[in-house]
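> example.struct
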């Protein structure tokens, strides 16, 4: 092998080593970047979970159970103070999440009709409610503040054989199942709650 050949071989070897080193550096950088993105995503998820709104809700019905008042208090967490007011939307969930999932018999209500009906003791009567009384319009609420909504008793669905008295008797001690959706600064939380009903007694 001539000197020229030797130099060429050495140059090729150096080039190969450099290429391998470059590939290794690229892979290391890609792995480090992936790890950093994963850590950042985990941290964002942790911060999002730490800021989940903490609601305290009460429902007080009159003695005749003809009207009730839902009070929603945003208790925290303190980290939400920097967000100022957050937007909340309060909805009523059905007593069973699987309502309407079963097989449909001929002549019976459709699954959509079943799910649309409020299966529970109370619905919203407050201004801004939807046509079913399941959801009220969004509003702003700050940590440490509260709001309230009027409620009225529900009725059995039109296709049901139950009387209104039977329907209300079935739900007489049932809690109201709520879902509160909160939004602030591109973040969103959904908080499920079950709120017992307290009956106001005559003084």
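> example.seq
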């Amino acid at each position: 092998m001539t000197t020229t050949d030797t130099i060429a071989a050495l140059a090729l070897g150096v080039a190969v080593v450099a290429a391998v080193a470059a590939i290794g550096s690229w892979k290391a950088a890609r792995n480090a970047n992936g790890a950093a993105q994963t850590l950042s995503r985990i941290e964002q998820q942790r911060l999002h979970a730490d800021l989940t709104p903490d609601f305290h809700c009460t429902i007080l019905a009159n003695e005749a159970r003809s009207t009730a008042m839902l009070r929603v208090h945003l208790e925290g967490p303190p980290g939400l103070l920097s967000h100022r007011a957050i937007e909340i939307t309060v909805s009523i969930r059905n007593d069973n999440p699987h309502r309407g999932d079963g097989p449909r018999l001929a002549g019976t209500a459709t699954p959509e009709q079943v799910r649309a009906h409020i299966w529970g003791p109370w619905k919203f009567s407050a201004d801004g409610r939807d046509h079913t009384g399941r959801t009220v319009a969004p509003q702003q609420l700050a940590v440490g503040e509260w709001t309230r909504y009027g409620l009225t008793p529900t009725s059995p669905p039109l296709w049901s054989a139950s009387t209104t008295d039977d329907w209300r008797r079935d739900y007489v001690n049932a809690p109201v199942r709520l879902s509160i959706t909160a939004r602030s600064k591109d973040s969103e939380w959904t908080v499920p709650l079950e709120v017992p009903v307290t009956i106001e007694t005559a003084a």
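> remarks
The two ends are 113 Å apart (CA to CA).
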